[in-house]
Specification:
about 450 residues; alpha/beta; 5-stranded mixed beta sheet; 8 helices; 28 strands; about 30% strand; elongated
């Protein structure tokens, strides 16, 4: 896979946000469908219509614990003059050969049990004496404790219409109906329906496997003590969590030191489990920007057609970016900047749509809305850059949180939206309607 929108660019040329995103989406393709067990298919996109092989429910069954009876036998029943019926047995859920109910008879029936032959309706147990002869009861006695409840007589104190408390065969779905259509995202209710109609496997596009690598010799794992000049690695945790939130199976790789050979080796090791690689850090113009060094080498050494292009975007934060493919399978790779806010904003704008495209989802972008800016002073933005500021959005209004610095993680943690300031706007006054990207 190569970068479809690669173009000649001078050292001062900038890509727009839209151009970079278009380049990514024009080259990333949905993963090939596979057959998965139901629970393994959770969160995946169905690639075929699924029809119902057998009606649900497959037989008439009771929606209540009570007694299956004939309508005529309980007509006019009341507390003063109850209908007295002979109990001929129990009908439990899963009963294969239920008893037959004849004139003057009743069968004690459980919720979900098939309506027995001869019965026309179900009377809830609360409308009867439960066979105790002591007036209305609140429930049945356990069969284990009182097996005699399946015989003797029962008094019914209320009449019921035909098919009352009966769930009809096919009242949910009928054989031949469309159960789920291609393109459906399989969540718990959809998996329940598939299981109910007897499907043990389903054909889907699998969830993409995303490997996240952060780079920097200054990075220390959370839980470890910091030495001079060191900071804790937060980017790999943020991006791995964001990839999972986007629907991927995400793997986090511990921070890689600023050594090109080590990074190349780590990437090669990870390719076996990656449908998409994401790196963070080392993509700017410094002497220790190891990602550019390592991947520039990889672009020359890999299979024909592979390559990662590094470019500068007309955006803030997130100006330095990289995109291309690597390895024998041309696995797509997105190289993000290392500042925490730059990294996260870049993920939301570029990596999330790529993950959801690999998944075969139609809705690949975060939702956007218009909101009134509430702020103490005008927002400033550099001309020629599309700026994304952290904000708190609620009730049709949005307020900036924190400054424009790309290192302000605490402000990012409080934000639930990104305020978008277009390239041709240098100042946004309070009260102005702005576009916001809604996060989460």
């Amino acid at each position: 896979m190569t970068s479809a929108a690669t173009r000649p660019a001078g050292p001062d040329d900038l890509w727009s946000v839209d151009e970079h995103l278009e380049d990514i989406l024009s080259t990333v393709r949905p993963l090939e469908p596979i057959e998965l067990q139901l629970l393994d298919a959770q969160g995946c996109v169905l690639v075929e219509d699924v029809t119902v092989p057998v009606s649900l429910p497959p037989f008439d069954n009771s929606s209540m614990d009570g007694y299956a009876v004939r309508v005529a036998d309980i007509a006019g029943a009341g507390e003063e003059f109850p209908a007295v019926l002979e109990v001929v047995g129990d009908v439990a859920a899963g009963a294969a050969d239920p008893v037959r109910v004849g004139p003057g008879q009743a069968a004690r029936i459980m919720t979900g049990a098939p309506l027995p032959p001869g019965a026309e309706t179900v009377v809830p147990v609360e409308w009867t004496d439960g066979g105790l002869g002591e007036g209305p009861v609140s429930g049945m006695r356990s069969r284990t404790l009182a097996p005699q409840g399946a015989e003797g007589q029962v008094c019914v104190y209320r009449s019921a219409a035909a098919r009352a408390h009966v769930r009809a065969r096919g009242s949910d779905v009928k054989a031949g109906d469309l159960a789920l259509e291609a393109g459906t995202v399989l969540g718990p209710p959809q998996l329940a329906l598939l299981a109910a109609i007897g499907r043990g496997t389903v054909r889907v596009r699998p969830r993409p496997r995303v490997v996240v690598l952060s780079t920097g010799s200054e990075l220390v794992q959370p839980g470890e003590e910091l030495g001079p000049g060191q900071i804790h690695d937060s980017n790999s945790f943020a991006l791995t969590a964001a990839a999972r939130d986007a629907g991927a199976i995400a793997y986090r790789v511990g921070a890689v030191a600023d050594d090109a050979e080590t990074l190349r080796s780590t990437i090669e090791d990870q390719l076996i489990r990656a449908d998409l690689l994401v790196t963070t850090g080392g993509v700017s113009v410094g002497a220790y920007d190891v990602v550019k060094e390592a991947l520039s080498y990889a672009a020359d050494a890999d299979e024909a057609g592979s390559g990662v292009e590094f470019r500068r975007l007309a955006m803030q934060p997130g100006k330095p970016q990289g995109f291309g493919s690597i390895g024998p399978d041309h696995t797509p790779l997105l190289a993000l900047p290392g500042n925490p806010v730059s990294s996260y904003v870049s993920f939301e704008l570029f990596v999330r749509p790529a993950i959801r495209t690999l998944s075969g989802l139609k809705d690949i972008h975060r939702p956007r809305a218009r909101a009134e800016l509430t702020a103490d002073e005008a927002l400033r933005s550099p001309r020629g850059r599309r700026q994304f500021l952290r904000g708190v959005h609620a009730g049709g209004k949005v307020s900036p949180v924190g400054g424009a610095g790309s290192h302000l993680i605490a402000a990012l943690a409080r934000a639930n939206a990104l305020i978008v300031v277009p390239e041709d706007v240098e100042s946004v006054e309070p009260g102005t309607e702005v576009e916001v990207v809604l996060l989460g």
